Amino acid sequence: EVQLVESGGGLVQPGGSLRLSCAASGFTVSSNYMSWVRQAPGKGLEWVSVIYSGGSTYYADSVKGRFTISRDNSKNTLYLQMNSLRAEDTAVYYCARQRVVPTHYFDYWGQGTLVTVSS
Amino acid sequence: DIQMTQSPSSLSASVGDRVTITCRASQSISSYLNWYQQKPGKAPKLLIYAASSLQSGVPSRFSGSGSGTDFTLTISSLQPEDFATYYCQQSYSTRTFGPGTKVDIK
Fold first, then answer.
1. Residue A39: is it exposed, middle or buried by C-beta count within 10 angstroms (0-12/13-18/19+)?
2. Distance from CA of A104 to the nearest CA of B (A)
3. What is the separation, in whole angstroms, between the first and last Cα of chain B?
4. Quick one: pLDDT at residue A102?
5. Which residues make Cβ contacts (< 8 Å) with residue A31, sequence separation at least 6?
6. How far apart are CA A5 and CA A111, in angstroms?
7. pLDDT under 70 in chain B at which residues?
8. DSSP 8-state symbol, B55
9. Among B12, B28, B31, B73, which is disulfide-ready with B106 (CB 3.0 to 4.6 Å)?
10. CA pair distance A34, A98, nearest whole angstrom
11. To which H or E segment does residue B103 belong?
12. Is B53 on the interface with A (CB under 8 A)?
């Protein structure tokens, strides 16, 4: 059974850092595209970042230069390192498996972890 | 970036109703359109991918259609568990989601 479990969220001050983790089971993270998607309180969904199976990474303009996506193949875990956090980064962060055939879509999602940026 | 719009932003319907939600892209995205359902406090759930392909395990009352810039999600007979917010998402370029359509009980 495919499962994604996020952790690492919490309260952080503006300008601070946080690292989110997404532990996967039932499939191999490194063989798949994996994304982070966030949702601000009461708002819609916003794609944040993706790491391809080959290791290429891409980011939304809103987080480029501040966030870094990575993975640990030995732990089958996805990460999101978030630096220089701003109030507008406050959101629930979901990790999701991204399928690529016949098109790109997110077929499995974690339960989400809440990040609150506030002084 | 490709912008996605949805209409209506919310609707009220009764169990058994046929419900149609529209999604429009700011440029042609072929069939690179997916639909998700989200209930309060829960992660989104994939319903439809590639505009019209039903995800495994999703009830057949859900269907999707369209190509180019205009797409629809149809629920043929609304069930109590279908009251939720529905999002479209394009995968033609950098992934963007529509603003959502909230379906609640009339």
1. buried
2. 6
3. 36
4. 87
5. A53
6. 7
7. none
8. P
9. B12
10. 5
11. strand B101-105
12. yes
| AA identity, residue B89 | Q
φ/ψ of residue B56, rounded to 5: -55, 130
Average pLDDT value over all residues in chain B: 96
- Asked if A46's CB is within 8 angstroms of B49's CB, the reply is no
Is B91 in Cβ contact with A105 (below 8 Å)? yes
Answer whether B15's CB lies under 8 Å from B34's CB: no
Which B residues in the span 12-51 are in contact with A, Cβ-Cβ below 8 Å?
31-32, 34, 36, 38, 42-46, 49-50
Kindly report the backbone phi and psi dihedral angles of residue A88, in degrees, each rounded to the nearest multiple of 5, phi listed first. -75, -5
The residue assigned the tokens 């058994």 is: B16
pLDDT value for B104: 94
* A53-97: pLDDT as tens digits: 999 999 999 999 999 999 999 999 999 999 999 999 999 999 999
The amino acid present at A23, given as its one-letter code, is A
Residue A12's DSSP bridge partners are: A117
Q: Please measure the distance between the N-terminal and C-terminal CA atoms of chain A and give it in whole angstroms.
A: 40
Q: Provide CB contacts within 8 A for B40, sequence distance 6+.
A: none
Neighbours of A85 (CB within 10 A): 22
Give the Cα separation of B106 and B91 in Å (integer). Answer: 33
Closest chain A CA to residue B29: A103
